[in-house]
UniProtKB/TrEMBL annotation:
Keywords: Isomerase. Its EC number is 5.3.1.6. This is ribose-5-phosphate isomerase. Pfam families: Rib_5-P_isom_A. Residues 23-38 have a biased composition (Basic and acidic residues). Residues 1-56 are annotated as: Disordered. It is an enzyme of class 5 (isomerase). Gene3D superfamilies: 3.30.70.260, 3.40.50.1360. One of its GO terms (molecular function) is ribose-5-phosphate isomerase activity. It catalyses: aldehydo-D-ribose 5-phosphate = D-ribulose 5-phosphate.
């Protein structure tokens, strides 16, 4: 049996939007306009769901030091446990839920479908962040809505390509940055679920791509402008290609530019401002000051971190 310390403060109570609509002050996010979010106090907890059974591969023992003990299991099983925990802790009947994309987020979607089928959840509707997510939601029985009809999202559960210590993340390497960020920004609560391979010391630190969604018109000119920004030490850039080697086109008809770095971006907020000032940039994969809770699957268990 292995042990892992759960970091961060205990889970915040599930908000009751009808009882307290007051917004929570966020740190300024230069990549998006300000929006209403949760407050850290004053909410009454919603009536809890009946305690769901833990996955058969997971065993939790009580401990006064908040150390959670897990049987040694595969990382895929723990990714599933992260998705299940996100839904069980943060999704309630009547909510509008942003449905993420990726290998970890799919477990959250499947869990919502299971609870709807069992009757433990009712009147939950989802906003899909991608076409694969839309297809999975239909398959498992999660009703979908359009953001134009809902506007405000109670909680979004999504994955990440990179997770920094302060819970800023990189997303969008698969494309569709604009849609993911629009749903995330509209959310009162953003829960990131990922595995430990996504943890970095700073954004851009994995040496994987930081994606930027740009217009097709003038895309090479936009690339040159971005590479010339003094706050970005880009060592290489390329446009995302599809399986046939052709230019990948996002769901909104745009190209995705990949930026590569030898070291973490020194000032992500300055980088965000500079990129958004380039005409032709629609959005980028730096999701700053957005994630409220991160549930990370490690080889020995789950860790839960809250934005301070």
């Amino acid at each position: 049996v292995a042990s892992v310390v759960v970091v961060g403060h205990p889970r915040r109570p599930i908000p009751d939007p009808a009882s307290d609509p007051a917004p929570r002050q966020r740190v300024e996010n230069t990549s998006r306009p300000p929006h209403d979010s949760l407050v850290d106090s004053g909410f009454r907890s919603a009536p809890p769901l009946p305690p769901p059974p833990l996955p058969p591969f997971l065993r939790t023992l009580s401990s006064p030091r908040r150390i959670v003990h897990y049987a040694m299991v595969s990382i895929d099983e723990l990714k599933k446990a992260a998705g299940v925990k996100a839904v069980d802790d943060y999704v309630r009947s009547g909510m509008v839920v942003g449905l993420g994309t990726g290998s970890t987020a799919k477990f959250a979607i499947e869990r919502i479908g299971q609870l709807l089928k069992e009757g433990a959840l009712e009147d939950v509707v989802g906003l899909a962040t991608s076409k694969p997510t839309m297809e999975l939601a239909h398959k498992v029985g999660v009703p979908l809505a359009d953001i134009n009809d809902k506007g405000e999202v109670d909680v979004t559960i999504d994955g990440a390509d990179e997770v920094a210590p302060n819970l800023d993340i990189v997303k969008g390497r698969m494309g569709g940055i604009l849609r993911k960020k629009m749903i995330g920004v509209a959310s009162k609560l953003y829960v990131c679920i990922a595995d430990e391979s996504k943890l970095v010391d700073g954004l851009g630190g994995s040496k994987g791509a930081v994606p930027v969604e740009v217009t097709q018109f003038g895309h090479e000119h936009v690339e040159r402008c971005i590479r010339g920004l003094p706050c970005l030490k880009v060592v290489r850039s390329e446009f995302k290609k599809d399986a046939d080697g052709e230019m990948f086109v996002s769901p909104h008809g745009n190209f995705i530019l990949y930026l590569y770095f030898d070291e973490p971006i020194a000032d992500p907020r300055a980088a965000s401002r500079a990129m958004m000032d380039v005409v032709g940039v629609l959005d980028h994969g730096l999701f700053l000051d957005l994630v409220d809770v991160a549930i990370i699957a490690t080889k020995t268990g789950l860790t839960v971190q809250h934005r301070q």
